[in-house]
Amino acid sequence: MRGSDLRYGSLFSYVDLESRVRGDPPLRSIREIANAALTALSDDFAALYPPRLGRPSVAPERLLRAMLLQAFYGIRSERQLMERMEFDLLFRWFVGLGVDDAAWDHSSFTTNRDRLLEGEIAAKFLAAVLAQPRVKRLLSSDHFSVDGTLIEAWASMKSFRRKDGTDQDGDGPGRNAERSFHGETRSNETHESTTDPQARLYRKGDGQPARLCYMGHALMENRHGLAVGGGVTQATGKAEREAALALVDAGPGRSRRRITLGADKAHDVTPFVEDLRERRVTPHIAINGHLTKTGKRRKTAIDSRTTRHAGYAVSQRCRKRIEEVFGWLKSAAGMAKTRFRGQPRVDAAFTLGLAAYNLIRLPKLLAAT
């Protein structure tokens, strides 16, 4: 018999979200791991929300789950996230909202989210995920890789103005007035963005355009390619090496044993290699042997006492997997151009993105082991 296309309203309705969500989606395993990490952060949440009179805030656990969904599905704005929360039962189930619960206003979500970002919860959440016993068994404690990537700032090149305010161009009509840079020499010493003063003008290489950006850094363990540390700094020529040393110092197992660190050619600098050796870190760095302008080959800081071991070749193969982390962050999580302004907020969003990358990979890794 043919079914009817007419829609009849019902007086009462009961929907069990658990029955509407399939038993095999990856989000079930991800939610279990995330909830265990959120439970470990209960004291940190209590410090951010001291007891006082007034209306209860949005639960921080639900806020973090919503922020993870935003990274998983590449949702660009809080308005879109709240709209999706209105009708998507899977989103409601993952966050912890009931069918009859109203989704938050986007402005309330943004205000409460900023409190979490300012409380360094993203870095603590990443550490809590990795500290779980079944996850910790997957991590290598001896072999790591480090790298950096550029993150375009949420600021237009038109906002890059002189610090002394002597720009001759008028504001012009409209929000997007013309701005002439012809014949003007611009640098970070004399100019800064009026939209995001902490963003820096940086060029990745010869022939590449200069952009207002930040630099994101990640430390990866080489066994399964999981991110174990990361952060965002201002984009400078030394930022990658300085951040690498900071990540190594804060990394797991530094007080117990010697480790190896894989990196690309940009890290083949004598002072950086010496700093690693002082920290009992074996530098498995790619050799930068390009020809100089005089036709001579550049002298490398990596000698045969490192390259003669088979582990050096293994690290060179494994270190390239860190590009998968950056590729997912930029293509899926929307970190190619950040939606935040200011280094602290960009750093928190980037670190939470690293935690989200680990979470999408952990279900398969745990099932395989």
UniProtKB/TrEMBL annotation:
* Domain Transposase InsH N-terminal as annotated: residue spans: 16-115
Region: Disordered, residue numbers: 162-203
Which Pfam family would be a valid example here? DDE_Tnp_1
- Domain named Transposase IS4-like: which ranges? 204-359
**Basic and acidic residues composition bias: residue spans:** 176-194
Question: What is the superkingdom listed in this entry's lineage?
Answer: Bacteria
- Which keywords accompany this UniProt record? DNA recombination, DNA-binding, Transposition
Tell me yes or no: is Metal-binding among this UniProt entry's keywords.
no
- Respond yes or no to whether keyword DNA-binding is given for this record: yes
Q: What's this protein's family per the entry?
A: Belongs to the transposase 11 family.
Question: Tell me, what does this protein do in biology?
Answer: Involved in the transposition of the insertion sequence IS5.
- Stated name of the protein: IS5 family transposase
Q: Say which species the protein is native to.
A: Phenylobacterium ferrooxidans
